[in-house]
Amino acid sequence: MFDGSCPLCRREVAVYQSMAPLQTVSWQDVSQDAANLSQTEQARYMARFHVRLADGRVLSGAAAFVALWLVMPGWRWLGRIGRLPGVTPVLERAYRGFLHLRPFLQRWARAAESAHRT
User: Fold this and answer.
1) Which residues, at least 6 apart from 45, have a Cβ–Cβ distance to it below 8 Å?
2) Which tens digits make up the pLDDT trace of 36-68?
């Protein structure tokens, strides 16, 4: 589940979507009304990256990325590293740091998109 209204998220997800995953991956843009989410759920899912596993569990942040990387060719090595003891918490801290920068990076990316279109 990703925030399709975020230019950074769209770009990253497009990279993943260009690959043939080892398991089926269903991408859900939670910024769209078609996601059929309550406003609370939509806000929660747009704030962080989420993955719903086949067993129904929902992972968020670094744990979600590790789960995704494990099924993406070329990224599995990073997923394996992320599963090592103590690594996911470090990745989570880095992800939270990125989330603080995300609004500024989004503005920059949107400005770059606008300039590219004109």
Assistant:
1) 1, 3, 30, 35, 37
2) 888 899 999 999 999 999 999 999 999 999 999
Residue 67 within any structural domain of the chain: yes
Query: What DSSP string describes the chain?
Result: -B-TT-HHHHHHHHHHHTS--SS-----BTTSGGG---HHHHHHHHHS-EEE-TTS-EEETHHHHHHHHTTSTTTHHHHHHHHSTTHHHHHHHHHHHHHHHHHHHHHHHHHHHHHHH-
pTM for this entry: 0.87
Domain, as residue range, for 109:
7-117
| Residue 48 in domain | yes
Q: Specify if 33 maps to a domain.
A: yes
